[in-house]
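User: tokens in, sequence out, please.
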């Protein structure tokens, strides 16, 4: 079941329409497998509560739930979340995931989580990414983990417009969130290259920024 959550204002129809249209173009947009950086960075953590921001078709949330996490999956696309619900039911983990449909531009956390995951929060539409990541950091419980993974470059077939400035590195994201000013342990701050395949079989090598930080405290 998908819960529609309204923040400071209603769902922004242009944003939700764009992403619903994006997912409706194909029966399945993503591979159904969790993001590699999530698996590498989180596999060794004990389960707790987690929120997956921009969860899409739900692969990351489902992977976490299968390993004992109680997960909240958040996305603006009703089409993507409907697929996520079906996938979670097929994997037998539906009872461990709460799906929320909301625009992250309107998201203000009302509780804290042991893991806050923000994977590839980029959009061809307007997206206040810095503000969303600030809220993501605020949502991490003491002793919890913040994991932010982003593109350092877009694939040639991407719909994303060419950025006016280089996309931020993990170190720049950490500095922008003041995670290097105390109160946090920076566990992973780096760049990772991977081979990707496009919708028509094209291949490219992409670099991703990977930031994992632990909030200090009991």
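Assistant: Sequence out:
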């Amino acid at each position: 079941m998908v819960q529609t959550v309204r923040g400071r204002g209603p769902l922004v129809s242009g944003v939700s329409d764009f992403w619903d249209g994006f997912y409706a173009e194909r029966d399945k947009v993503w591979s159904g497998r969790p993001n590699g950086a999530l698996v590498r960075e989180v596999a060794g953590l004990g389960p707790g509560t987690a929120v997956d921001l921009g969860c899409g078709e739900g692969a990351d949330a489902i992977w976490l739930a299968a390993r004992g996490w109680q997960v909240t999956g958040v996305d603006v696309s009703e089409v993507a979340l409907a697929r996520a619900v079906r996938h979670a039911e097929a994997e037998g983990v539906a009872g461990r995931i709460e799906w929320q449909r909301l625009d992250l531009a309107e998201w203000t956390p009302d509780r804290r989580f042991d893991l806050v995951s923000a994977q590839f929060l980029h959009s061809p539409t307007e997206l206040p990414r810095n503000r969303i990541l600030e809220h993501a950091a605020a949502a991490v419980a003491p002793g919890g983990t913040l994991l932010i993974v982003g593109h350092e470059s877009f694939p040639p077939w991407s719909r994303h417009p060419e950025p006016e400035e280089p996309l931020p590195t993990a170190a720049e994201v950490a500095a922008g969130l003041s995670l290097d000013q105390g109160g946090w342990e920076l566990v992973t701050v780096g760049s990772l290259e991977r081979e990707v395949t496009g919708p028509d079989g094209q291949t490219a090598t992409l670099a991703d920024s990977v930031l994992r930080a632990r909030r200090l405290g009991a």
